[in-house]
Amino acid sequence: MRTCFFALFVLGSTSSVASAQGFPSFESSRGPPPGYTGQVFELQQDYPDTAPPQSPRPWDAIDFRSQPAAYLRAVLDFALEGTVDNNGLVARPGWFHAPWMTSGCNGREFSHGLTRELASGPRSVHPQQDGFLENWAVSLYDERGGYTIGRVWSDPNGPPAPQHADFPTGATAIKFLFTTATPAQVPYLEGSIEIEAHVYPDAGRNPCTAPEVPRQMRTMRLLQVDVAVADDRATDTGWVFGTFIYDGAQPAPRIWDRLVPVAVAWDNESEVTSRLRDDGAFVNPDLTHGWVNADLLEPESDPRAAFVLHFGLGGRANGPVDNPISSCLSCHARAATVDWSLAGARRVLPTVPPGVGSVGAYPIEQFAEFFGDVPPGFVPVAIEPSRRHLDYSLQLAVGIRNYCNQHSSDPACRATSPAPPPSAPLTFASAPLASTSRVDEELARIGRGDEDPWRARRADNWDATAVAQHVPETSAHEPPQPVAEARAGAHEGPPTTLLAGILLSVLAAIGAAAVRARSKR
User: Fold this and answer.
1) Count of structural domains within the chain
2) Residue 502 to residue 382: CA distance in whole angstroms
């Protein structure tokens, strides 16, 4: 099969580090070297000023519970229509990147705008993979998602407004993940898209530890594509997450049609604790709010056929290069505001339990904390209600974290600010054991004077502050980086499991009440 070289997101010949709108595309210190004549990434940041129309989506008539693969394919086709053509990836009008993803060890590289993801250890992607792999990715949001990104980041020279982290129904995101693996290491990558990107070499150690390893141009191949959709039919979370793998054995002439669905999930199913310490790829019949592709469990006779060596924890939905002690949904659910008044790792909400390096060592007593369902919108974090979730957007969380690394004294970098809105939201301090009826009363009391049409989707959304993300370190996706060491460790000492369970139950009740409130509008 012929290998394909593609250009990603080249929307002009400019090599300017910052666009006219002001958000930089990459750090100037990591820009093109002297004499470089190749393509240069440009951040797509002309975010919509007004809410885009709520037109029907192709997957609206597809039930992700009964037709998960068909639902995922409809979402993928929609996203690809706006981000690719026969010659590669092109950010067409109406698709946008998130800003502030440039700084730190995992920040954007200059040629394609890729950010560093979690590295893959030997034989974690394929039995023939004899060394570590660097994995890098670029994500885009459609107009509805771009509208929310633009509200949070309305001023390139000012602080974020995380209280606007509330994506409308139908908001869609897609992520293209590339790896340094060769077809000799991962045979099913034969014929995949190849690009040249400015990333780290195989240094035999963490390239982010001092002294940082210099980046270099390397060949990378498309291995995984993730999609996410804000869908109110996912009543507990408001989101559906799915992932695809490139399959070199697929006969389709178009590369994009060789992407095979791996898994989809719309609920963390924290009540299902079976097989939490089982390693490898398997179907867990106890999980009913997600789907994994059983056809990918075993290698086929064709060495170019894709297969996976693991899913997420307990058999939950996850991508082939993602962290097996997490899952797509649980990792993104941990996107939350930071608190720069705290020290070190405690500033950022961890995506996985601190210090856990394998499935067999997963601390069962912390499972409910990391896999509890989180209502959509800008809602309190169950065990730390002074923090707020960022509606499953790790891109927002990482961007705000990066901003706070440079503006630590900004009020937006403190969990207690800005001040609550005039209609104070329900807080755990005032109603730690709120019943469903109490939640209904609170939702009715809060009301919404805001005429913004997106508000109708998230009645369970409250205004406040923000920061965090799917940034590098011990997160489920990205590797460690000195600045916010071990993104794990947001807590000192073991968590209070009983309290966490109670607060997660309260959040579940709030989410259910909010869905009922939305359905009456």
Assistant:
1) 1
2) 9
CA distance 132 to 171: 35
Which residues contact residue 320 at a Cβ distance below 8 angstroms, ignoring those fewer than 6 apart?
A: 125, 223, 224, 243, 245, 262, 308, 309, 310
Using a CB cutoff of 8 Å and minimum separation of 24, what contacts does 297-301 make? Answer: 300/249
Q: Is residue 364 pLDDT above 80, yes or no? A: yes
Backbone angles phi and psi of 491, in degrees to 5:
-130, 150
Q: Please count the other Cβ atoms lying within 10 Å of the Cβ belonging to residue 437.
A: 10
Q: What is the DSSP string of 411-436?
A: GGGSTT-SPPPSSPPP-TTT-TT--H
| Whole-angstrom distance, CA of residue 125 vs CA of residue 133 | 9
Angle in degrees, 0-180, between the axes of helices 143-152 and 394-406, rounded to the nearest 10:
20
CB proximity list for 129: less than 8 A, separation 6 or greater: 120, 122, 123, 181, 185, 186
Phi/psi region, residue 508 (left: phi>0; alpha: psi -120 to 50; beta: rest), is: alpha
- What six digits make up the tokens of 167? 């994506």
Rounded to a whole number of angstroms, the CA Rg of the chain reads 21
Domain of residue 418 covers 4-519
CB contact at 8 A, 511 and 373: yes
What does the angle CA 160 – CA 156 – CA 452 come to, to the nearest 5 degrees?
A: 55
Written as one string, the DSSP assignment of 443-489 is: HHHH------GGGGT-TT---------S-SSSSSSSPP-GGG--S--
Token output for 349? 């909400």
For 55, what's the count of Cα atoms within 13 Å in the CB-facing half-sphere?
6
Distance of CA 465 to the CA centre of its chain: 19
Q: In the predicted model, what is the mean pLDDT of residues 26-41?
A: 93
Q: Copy the structure tokens of residue 205.
A: 């150690």
The stretches of 171-263 forming alpha helices (DSSP H) are none
Nearest C-alpha neighbor of 57 from the set 158, 170, 161: 170
DSSP 96: B
Residue 89 has pLDDT above 50, yes or no: yes
Instruction: Indicate the SS3 state at residue 317.
Output: coil
- Is a pLDDT exceeding 60 seen at residue 56? yes
> Look-up: residue for tokens 């993979």?
129
Instruction: Tell me: pLDDT of 3 over 50.
Output: no
